[in-house]
Amino acid sequence: MDKITIVIPTKNEEGNIEKVIKEVKKYADELLMIDGHSKDKTREIAIKNKVKVILDPGKGKGSGIRTGIKHAKHNIIVFIDADLSHEPTDIPKLVKPIIDGKAHMVIASRRRGGSDDLDMNKFRDGFLRQLGNDLLTLIINKRWNANLTDIENGFRAIRKDIALKLNLNAKDFDIEQEMVQKCLKKGFIIKEVPSHEYARAAGKSKLGTLKAAYKFPLRLLKDFF
Ligand SMILES: Nc1nc2c(ncn2[C@@H]2O[C@H](COP(=O)(O)OP(=O)(O)OP(=O)(O)O)[C@@H](O)[C@H]2O)c(=O)[nH]1
Ligand SMILES: [Mg+2]
Q: Residue 80 is inside which H or E element, if any?
């Protein structure tokens, strides 16, 4: 049987983490919380719920994801955010193409499943984010002859042995895009499944659309050739 490690990256998610743990637990053979040095009760709540907590190097979400890959015990890794924006009941359909040997990585696509988080009435956190994601997706599709719709979503599954072959180095939110570009570059198969994204339940976004915006085109160039 293919066993699953679920990795939850967290940073100050005390208002969400207990519910996420309860919702994803039944899909996990191993559950890891990778924490970016939360200053609230996030780690305390996870420990109370008997979840293994590992601190990341404190450099951003990307360093958290890479820490999760390193520590995962099983060969199928599912990443799910800690803010209740992803649909845990979609985990079985996310891992199925990997179990069936049809994909090396599977992304939950908000383009195919819809998103309440991308509020298109908001210029920065709606329109600009969607525009950026779509533009990067188009360029990446053209570059590698792919047919993806959502390269940035953090809700995804990947084989650990494949993730290790990617030599990931992103420290921040460009990690998801790096995974996509390097998979395509190395000829690994990426599939998408539709999944609905909800608006973050409690707490604040850590992305900072404007401050982080330069990282995505920079990543595009870094791993283009
Ligand atoms: N380990 C780790 N996790 C992080 C770090 N920064 C953010 N996260 C987590 O990564 C996930 C995605 O971050 P969000 O702040 O939700 O980013 P976003 O989805 O673009 O923003 P929202 O639209 O507000 O949800 C969440 O579970 C965060 O808690 C970090 O430095 N280290
Ligand atoms: Mg979020």
A: none
- The phi, psi pair for 154, rounded to 5°, reads -80, -15
For the chain, state the CA radius of gyration: 16
Spans in the chain with pLDDT lower than 50: none
Q: What are the structural domain ranges in the chain?
A: 4-222
How crowded is residue 21: how many other Cβ atoms within 10 Å of its Cβ? 21
Q: Is 14's C-beta closer than 6 angstroms to any atom of ligand 1?
A: no
Give the pLDDT confidence score for residue 209 in this predicted structure: 64
Mutate to test the pocket of ligand 1, among 45, 54, 69, 83 (most ligand atoms within 8 A of CB): 83
Cα–Cα distances in angstroms (integers) from residue 118 to residues 4, 109, 123, 129, 192, in the given order: 29, 13, 10, 8, 19
Integer CA distances (angstroms), 180 to 96, 134, 135, 143, 150, in order:
19, 14, 15, 12, 10
4-222 domain in CATH 3.90.550.10?
yes
Whether residue 200 has its Cβ less than 6 Å from ligand 1: yes
| Tokens at 217, concatenated | 């085109």
Q: What pTM value is reported for the model?
A: 0.95
Instruction: Give the closest residue (by CA) to ligand 1 atom 24.
Output: 205
Any residues with CB less than 8 A from the CB of 191 and at least 6 apart, and which? Answer: 97, 102, 103, 105, 106, 107
Q: Please work out whether the CB of residue 82 comes within 6 Å of at least one atom of ligand 1.
A: yes
pLDDT at 222: 95
